[in-house]
Amino acid sequence: MKIERINEYTLKFYISYLDIEDRGFDREEIWYNRDRSEELFWQMMEEAHRKESFTLEGPLWIQVQALEKGMEIIVTKAQLSQDGTNLQLPVSKDRRIDIPVSEEAGKYISREKENQKRQKNEEKNETNRMSGMEDGDGISFIIEFEDIEDLIALSHAFRNESMDTTLYAYKGKYYLNAWFPDELSDDRQDDDLSRLLEYGLDTDVTAYVLQEYGKELIHERALETISRHFPMNP
Fold first, then answer.
1. What is the DSSP string of 149-170?
2. Sign of the Cα pseudo-torsion (22, 26, 30, 34, in order)
3. C-alpha gyration radius of the chain
4. Phi, psi at residue 57, to the nearest 5°?
5. 66: Cβ–Cβ under 8 A, 6 or more apart, which residues?
6. Domain residues of the chain, as ranges?
7. What is the DSSP code (8-state) at residue 232?
8. What is residue 127's three-state secondary structure?
């Protein structure tokens, strides 16, 4: 997926149908299944938030164009006027476009914002529950490995007793879900994550995709288990 920052208010996405399928979605269902299309959209927005620091607050004006090999999506942060009669779309710092909306439409936008926040929180809690961690207890990162030898080397080179790991196989690659507890300092988390990425790769594959479509190989303490069963090659 490509993300282009147009300005501080607007992002342009290009995502191919192959990328959509790699994320665990069917190219047809994103047009006809609202829940699945929203799930894909919020995955994309969270990625934009990480990479472009694009905040997710407020109403969003979304334009979708179907292309031969994918989709182009333009997302603009908007806001309701104080009286709720206009949806204001910023074109530049000094210029806005006011789009009239009915009172019911204004209520709908506000209601959708609350629904989106609630849905995201529910999905986060469900993902945490499925991975055996309660909400607020820590944070997890997904690391991709193309070769099992890289995982074996990591298991012998890295030790962190407070970090738990789960290993998945998905589409011919290995994925390590590394969970850091809250009591671990931010600096320590950054250092440990940097060491993990010396052996693996950052990825857009999410824990949800791995849990739904991947194969769980080692449920917990994956690195310790690999270290015990696979000695380092001389």
1. HHHHHHHHH---TT-EEEEEEE
2. negative
3. 21
4. -75, 150
5. none
6. 2-130, 138-229
7. P
8. helix
Among 130, 145, 137, 155, smallest CA distance to 222 is for 155
Return the structure tokens found at 20: 């959509």
One DSSP character per residue, 41-61 reads HHHHHHHHHHHH-----S-EE
Q: What fold is seen in the domain 138-229?
A: Alpha-Beta Plaits (3.30.70)
Joined tokens for residue 68? 């031969």
d(CA 209, CA 21): 11
pLDDT per position as a tens digit, 80-105: 555 444 555 554 455 444 444 444 33
**Cα atoms found within 13 Å of the Cα of residue 148, Cβ hemisphere only:** 14
What does the pLDDT look like over 147-180, one tens digit per residue? 999 999 999 998 888 889 999 999 999 999 998 8
Q: Count CB neighbours of 5 within 10 A.
A: 14
* Collapsed DSSP state (helix, strand, coil) of residue 103: helix
Instruction: Name the residue type at position 44.
Output: M
Inter-axis angle of helices 148-157 and 186-199, to 10 degrees? 140
Cα separation, 135 vs 133, whole angstroms: 7
- What are residue 138's DSSP bridge partners? 181
Lookup: tokens for 150: 């890289």
